[in-house]
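Design job #97: recover the sequence.
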C-alpha cells in the first residue's frame, strides 16, 4: 500500500439470502455473490480492513478480517447491525429476499391439495435501516438491479435509502450481471454526478468502485476536519 493511502474499514454484504419454508425448502434468488466477493477482494488488495457478511454462495471467502456466513435476511440484518458502526464505508451488494414465509413448518410439508398458498411477510430493508435505525454516518453504498428506467429508479433508491453512492446495473441484459463474470454499471452519486463503467470483469468493476468510495471517504474526512478547525478557530 502506498504511503499516502489510508487504511479504511469496509463492510460488504454479498450473495442471496435463503428464507426457509420447511426443513428442506427455501425461497431464494439467483445471486452468485461474485460482485460482492469481488468488492471485498478489491478492498483487501488496496490494503483495507474488510468485514464480509455473506449469504450462501459457492465461493471461497477472500482472507478478510472477518467473514460471517448467514442464511436469512433477519440473520444478515443482525450481523450488519452489530458491525456497521466501526465501518468507514458499508457496501450493500447482497440480493436480500424482500419477503419470507410468515411461518416455517417444523416438518416437511406433504403434498395434498392441487394448489397451495404460501403467505409471505416483508423482510426488513437492511440498507434502508443503516441511517436512522443503525445511526450509520459513514459512506453508504447501495446496489440496484433494474430492468427498466434505470436512472430514475436508481436515483429514487439513492435518496430513499440515504446512500452516498448507488451502483446500478441493467439485469434485463443476459450478458452481464447475475451469475456472469462480467458487469457493466452506472454509479449515481448523491451530489447528482454519475459515472458509467463500461463492460469489464466484475473484479475490474469492483476495483473502480472501491477507488470511488475511497475518494468519498477522503472527501468526507476532509470536510469534517475543515469544519472542526473552523470551530476551533472560532473558539479561540
Ligand atoms: N437491500 C437490503 N435489504 C433488503 C433489500 C435490499 O439491504 N431487505 C439492499 C440491497 O443489498 C441493495 C439495495 O438494497 O443494495 C437494493 O434495493 P431494493 O429496493 O431491494 O432494490 P431491488 O432489489 O432492485 O428491488 P426493487 O426494485 O423491487 O425495490
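Job complete. Output follows.
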Amino acid at each position: 500500500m502506498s504511503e499516502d493511502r489510508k487504511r479504511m474499514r469496509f463492510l460488504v454484504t454479498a450473495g442471496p439470502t435463503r428464507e426457509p419454508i420447511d426443513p428442506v425448502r427455501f425461497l431464494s434468488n439467483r445471486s452468485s455473490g461474485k460482485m460482492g466477493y469481488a468488492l471485498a477482494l478489491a478492498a483487501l488488495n488496496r490494503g483495507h480492513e474488510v468485514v464480509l457478511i455473506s449469504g450462501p454462495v459457492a465461493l471461497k471467502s477472500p482472507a478478510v478480517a472477518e467473514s460471517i456466513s448467514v442464511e436469512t435476511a433477519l440473520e444478515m440484518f443482525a450481523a450488519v447491525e452489530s458491525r456497521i458502526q466501526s465501518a468507514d464505508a458499508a457496501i450493500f451488494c447482497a440480493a436480500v429476499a424482500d419477503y419470507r414465509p410468515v411461518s416455517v413448518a417444523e416438518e416437511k410439508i406433504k403434498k395434498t391439495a392441487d394448489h397451495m398458498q404460501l403467505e409471505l411477510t416483508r423482510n426488513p430493508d437492511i440498507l434502508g435501516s443503516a441511517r436512522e435505525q443503525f445511526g450509520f454516518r459513514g459512506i453508504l453504498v447501495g446496489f440496484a438491479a433494474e430492468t427498466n428506467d434505470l436512472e430514475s429508479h436508481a436515483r429514487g433508491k439513492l435518496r430513499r435509502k440515504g446512500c452516498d453512492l448507488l451502483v446500478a446495473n441493467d439485469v434485463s441484459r443476459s450478458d452481464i450481471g447475475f451469475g456472469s463474470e462480467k458487469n457493466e454499471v452506472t454509479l449515481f452519486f448523491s451530489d447528482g454526478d454519475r459515472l458509467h463503467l463500461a463492460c469489464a470483469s466484475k473484479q475490474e468493476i469492483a476495483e473502480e468502485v472501491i477507488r470511488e468510495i475511497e475518494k468519498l471517504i477522503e472527501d468526507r474526512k476532509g470536510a469534517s476536519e475543515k469544519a472542526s478547525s473552523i470551530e476551533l478557530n472560532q473558539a479561540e
